[in-house]
């Protein structure tokens, strides 16, 4: 089995497991420690936004503040024999009161991951509607997404919606088919994004469309070896889909100047800073934003078992750890920020199990703070473990401490 498949399986399990965490104030699977005294080091990278270009897109992203994902909910996906729906990965339906609670906690922006695959009709129209399993009680996916988006915008918050596990490896995921039949996948990609763009045409400019989520073509060029083609061919596929996304949205009236979030290759910082990755061309200046994710080191952020085959760490916070964090963000500065291209850190987070809580606090605080210091919007990946999805929506004490540390 390829290393990637092992990694993907672990990450998928991580996503499922964290959605069942009840937001209690202690982590019985990990090591409780005093996190009240956690602070960032005195030599932590300072605010550099004053030295960066100050165009409209850069200002827009800075104004988004601190953000959070509502993960494992509208993005849940099943298989050919099982329909996940909104509750399939363990979370309740999103409510308007939950959106209000997130705002009250200080969040200015919400990323709303949406998987459309289980609600897409047959070719050639690929109409988004009720689930293809004919469950009878599933709401129209477009209507449901629009309802939650409205709740977010009504709170004067920023909102990101995307194609999430449509680009994954589940039975009904389809974007990766582009490596086998590009024209067919492109046609579906166009028709899905056109429907979304039409439905939200004229919506607040605080609504951001994100092309896709964590997509790369390892069957063409394997990150750790293998593949039927070249690295350039793999990157060209993603570049072409991102260009198709921009062209499609701009072609729908009411979205001519909407801010668009462009998924980097695997949303990995290194791959997205590779010269082979290209930001799309646009018909308007300063409206494109790069999307990357950060789960680094994976042995700390994702691995949950001490005997994990590809490594495990229960703590974070050495000088080397901080240097690595700064080096990764400096890549974004050199390749994007210095050129006036803003960045959204669309996901970052750390597992709960077998982790030292003070290290979780330190890692989350460090990533949040350096993002803000570099003018990057940080979007915490949460599936109900950091903030309970059921009223009264209790925030985990570790996350409260992160908010106290971050300036």
Description:
The chain is an alpha/beta fold and 407 residues long. The protein has a single domain, classed as Glycosidases (TIM Barrel). It has 11 helices and 8 strands. Strand 2 (109-112), helix 4 (141-154) and strand 3 (158-162) form a beta-alpha-beta unit. 44% of the residues are buried. Residues 1-28 have low confidence and may be disordered.
How many separate helices? 11
Count all strands and give the number.
8
Total domain modules:
1
Shape: globular
Label this structure with key terms.
alpha/beta, TIM Barrel, eight-stranded parallel barrel, globular, disordered N terminus
Short description:
This protein has 407 residues and is α/β, with parallel strands linked by helices. The chain is built from eleven helices and eight strands.
What is the secondary structure topology, with strand pairs?
Blueprint lengths: L2 H16 L37 H8 L3 E3 L26 H9 L4 E4 L28 H14 L3 E5 L19 H18 L7 E4 L20 H20 L9 E4 L5 H4 L15 E7 L3 H4 L17 H17 L7 E6 L8 H17 L3 E4 L16 H9 L2
Parallel strand pairs: 1-2, 1-8, 2-3, 3-4, 4-5, 5-6, 6-7, 7-8
Helix pairs in contact: 5-6, 9-10, 10-11
């Amino acid at each position: 089995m390829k290393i990637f498949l092992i990694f993907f399986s672990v990450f998928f399990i991580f996503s499922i497991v964290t959605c069942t965490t009840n937001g209690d104030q202690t982590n019985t699977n990990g090591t409780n420690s005093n996190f009240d005294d956690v602070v960032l080091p005195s030599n932590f990278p300072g605010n550099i936004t004053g030295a960066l270009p100050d165009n409209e897109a850069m200002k827009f992203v800075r104004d988004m503040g601190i953000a959070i994902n509502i993960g494992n909910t509208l993005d849940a996906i099943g298989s050919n024999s099982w329909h996940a729906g909104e509750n399939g990965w363990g979370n309740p339906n999103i409510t308007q009161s939950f959106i209000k609670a997130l705002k009250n906690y200080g969040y200015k922006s919400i990323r709303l991951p949406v998987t459309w695959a289980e609600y897409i009709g047959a070719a050639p129209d690929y109409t988004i509607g009720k689930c293809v399993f004919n469950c009878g009680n599933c709401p129209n996916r477009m209507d449901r997404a629009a309802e939650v988006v409205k709740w977010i915008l009504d709170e004067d918050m920023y909102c990101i919606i995307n194609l999430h596990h449509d680009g994954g490896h589940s039975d009904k995921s389809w974007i990766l088919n582009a490596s086998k039949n590009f024209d067919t996948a492109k046609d579906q990609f166009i028709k899905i994004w056109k429907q979304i763009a039409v439905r939200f045409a004229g919506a607040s400019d605080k609504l951001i469309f994100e092309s896709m989520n964590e997509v790369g073509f390892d069957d063409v060029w394997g990150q750790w070896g293998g593949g039927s083609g070249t690295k350039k061919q793999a990157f060209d596929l993603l570049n072409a889909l991102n260009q198709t996304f921009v062209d499609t949205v701009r072609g729908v009236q009411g979205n001519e100047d909407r801010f668009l979030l462009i998924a980097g290759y695997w949303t990995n910082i290194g791959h997205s800073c590779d010269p082979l990755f290209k930001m799309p061309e646009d018909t308007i200046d300063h409206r494109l934003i790069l999307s990357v994710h950060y789960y680094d080191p994976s042995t700390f952020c994702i691995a949950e078992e001490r005997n994990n085959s590809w490594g495990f760490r229960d703590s974070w916070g050495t000088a080397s750890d901080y240097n690595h964090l700064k080096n990764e963000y400096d890549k974004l500065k050199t390749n994007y920020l210095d050129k006036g291209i803003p960045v959204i850190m669309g996901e970052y987070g750390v597992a709960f199990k077998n982790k030292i809580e003070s290290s979780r606090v330190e890692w989350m605080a460090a990533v949040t703070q350096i993002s803000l210091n570099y003018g990057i919007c940080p979007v915490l990946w949460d599936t109900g473990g950091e903030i309970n999805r059921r009223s009264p929506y209790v925030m985990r004490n570790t996350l409260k401490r992160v908010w106290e540390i971050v300036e």
